[in-house]
Design brief:
single chain; alpha/beta; 3-stranded mixed beta sheet; 27% helix
């Protein structure tokens, strides 16, 4: 399912984000937004120490941004059930595994309390990306640094 929605990044400007969720599944307690990965996926890539830019800037944490975006877009989508949203990765590598977005070591869900903080974080990230004075620095893997 294609999911889309706005994220304010300036007082008078919003970015329209678009993603394609491989699977969306509702249970009694939550709406699960699942992305399938055929490549390598590590649980630590989806575990961040807080909802702030510094946590996302840590080496290897960029994949968590996708789960934050998909979760927020699903939360905003009025055609989906109004349930807390949990974002997950299902990796086909090895025996397969479900990797969940974790913040401060706890499974994270987007709900009425957390959605504004996620939208602010993504707005801050977009504002930083759109700032012509800010250099965009590509993340390198540890192997590339050697």
């Amino acid at each position: 399912k294609e999911i889309t929605g706005p994220v304010d990044w300036q007082a008078d400007r919003a970015a329209r984000l678009i993603g394609t969720a491989d699977r969306i599944q509702a249970t009694e307690e939550a709406l699960y937004v699942i992305d399938y990965k055929t490549g390598q996926a590590e649980a630590t890539n989806y575990e961040i120490s807080g909802l702030n830019l510094e946590a996302l800037r840590q080496n290897g944490k960029a994949p968590a941004i996708q789960l934050l975006v998909y979760g927020l877009l699903a939360w905003q989508d009025e055609s989906l059930p109004a349930l807390p949203v949990r974002s997950q990765i299902y990796t086909f590598r090895g025996k397969g595994a479900v990797l969940e977005l974790k913040v401060d070591k706890a499974v994270f869900e987007i709900n009425g309390e957390t959605a504004p903080a996620v939208e602010k974080l993504l707005g801050d990230l977009i504002r930083e990306m759109m700032d012509p004075k800010q250099a965009l620095v590509l993340e390198t893997s540890p192997e590339e640094d050697e």
